[in-house]
């Protein structure tokens, strides 16, 4: 597990994550019998940089916030907000609990760090905001409630939801419509 230094420029954070990934890659070649399948680096403030540099797991506290789909990975240049998954798509969301109404309010971050920003009427108490977000996403994507699953970020404002049965093309088209509206 690597945590980048706090309060340093983005280039230094990227270099920290890149150095660990390169070290791991060299050790995989030198020691092929050892398993180096998990590369855990990054925290809630820099998880997008960690993923872009090759992280296979990001944690907040002791909870995994992001792990790639089975057999998947995320490298620099790929979008983080919406990704294909064997069961549908994953969507990175930035929650704003305690709002007057639940609605998509825009994007949080940019590039690889972009998340769909959603204001949530429910308070962040006992999982109520998470339940409200899942119900909102189910309604928005015309899915049954059990087709929306919180994959990471249970206690964080940054979350990843799995939308079962949604194709990447459909999700991209819907998001494009909402962002233009």
Determine the CATH superfamily of the largest domain.
YggU-like
Helical segment tally? 4
By CATH, the architecture of the largest domain is named: 2-Layer Sandwich
CATH C-level name of the largest domain: Alpha Beta
**What does the largest sheet look like?**
6 strands, mixed
- What structural class do you assign from the helix and strand content? alpha+beta
What sequence of helices (H) and strands (E) makes up the elements? HHEEEEEEHEEH
Fold and architecture overview:
The protein has helices at 10-30, 47-52, 128-140, 168-180, and strands at 58-60, 63-66, 82-85, 88-97, 103-108, 115-120, 148-152, 158-164. The protein has 4 helices and 8 strands, in the order H-H-E-E-E-E-E-E-H-E-E-H. The strands form 2 sheets. Strands 3, 4, 5, 6, 7 and 8 form a 6-stranded mixed beta sheet that branches. Strands 1-2 form a two-stranded antiparallel ribbon.
């Amino acid at each position: 597990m690597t945590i980048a230094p706090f309060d340093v420029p983005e280039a230094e954070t990227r270099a920290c994550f890149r150095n660990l990934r390169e070290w791991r890659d060299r050790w995989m070649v030198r020691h092929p019998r050892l398993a180096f399948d998990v590369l855990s680096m990054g925290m809630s403030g820099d998880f997008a940089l960690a993923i872009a540099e090759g992280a296979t797991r990001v944690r907040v506290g002791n909870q995994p916030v992001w792990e790639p789909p089975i057999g998947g990975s995320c490298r620099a240049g790929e979008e983080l907000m919406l990704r294909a998954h064997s069961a549908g798509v994953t969507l990175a969301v930035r929650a704003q609990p305690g709002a007057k109404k639940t609605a998509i309010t825009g994007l949080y971050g940019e590039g690889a760090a972009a998340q769909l920003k959603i204001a949530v009427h429910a308070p962040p108490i006992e999982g109520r905001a998470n339940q409200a977000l899942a119900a909102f996403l189910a309604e928005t994507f015309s899915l049954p409630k059990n087709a929306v699953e919180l994959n990471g970020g249970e206690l964080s404002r940054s979350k990843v939801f799995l939308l079962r049965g949604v194709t990447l093309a459909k999700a991209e088209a819907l998001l494009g419509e909402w962002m233009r509206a």
